[in-house]
Design a protein that fits this description.
Elements: E1 3-6, E2 10-16, E3 19-26, H1 28-36, E4 43-50, H2 55-63, E5 66-74, E6 80-86, E7 93-99, E8 119-122, H3 127-135, E9 143-147, H4 150-155, H5 157-164, E10 169-173, H6 174-181, H7 186-195, E11 200-204, E12 210-214, E13 217-221, H8 235-250, H9 255-272, H10 286-299
Amino acid sequence: MSLLAVGTLAYDDVYTPYGEVKMIEAGSCTYIAMAATHFVQPVQLVSVIGGDYNDDFLADLKKRGSDLEGVEVVKDGKSFYWAGRYHDDMMGRDTLDTQLNVLADFDPKVPESYQKAPYVMLGNLTPAVQSRVLDQMAERPKLTALDTMNFWMDNALDDLKAVLKRIDVLIINDEEARQLSGELSLLKAAAKIVEMGPRILVIKKGEHGALLFEGENLFSAPALLLPKVVDPTGAGDTFAGGMIGYLAATDDLSFENLKRAVIHGSAMASFVVEDFGTRRMQTLDQEQIDRRVQRFGQLMTVSL
């Protein structure tokens, strides 16, 4: 079983109350792959980088189970770059700089060997780019998931609504769900969003967990309280990678397994915030993941 992941391979400068890092490897595709390869391999990446990207980091991604055939290298270009500073409460952040660089002209090319991937994770990119990826699939995937953000709701809503009709799972946060639906109640918001196309909706609520909607089924997943959150960057992408990676590995789309997938995604996200960038993900092993998943299970166990 394989997973196709589309998104960015980037460099970040990150400033938090716990320190700072500069030019650390990041991007939606990076975080998705670092989480998903713990469950399923290969994770087939479609992205674009400049000639400045770290070859050693790419080699490490490949060693961990990522297939890089779909990563375009613009040798004389610079990779996507973002800089941000988090507030003291680690909830809000200010973007200090964004440089699209090679991403500005990104026209994804899905290798023939990827075009029958049964599971697809469309990371946060322009909706038009997400659609062009789906146009290149040789057959409809068994499950297609998509992440998006309020910027595209403000600036590319028609394109976003068009791609929503073609996917199975939408993963967004509570603020984005309210904006997309125009509803304050998340229950009403979910009902409206599902009418737009996706049959499965995941609403992330940060430190308050996540909600899973499928038809009449609703699941509320807890969040794990951590003693210290060092860097929240990439937590949403890591959640998505863990969730879809687990679904691809188990190849079971029942609601019970969707719930398990949300917990596995939450567990992976709880690791990535413990250090800057993907540093914590690089030291993870299966025993640590299993223990963390069990902690989530304990949060949900009650005798009535």
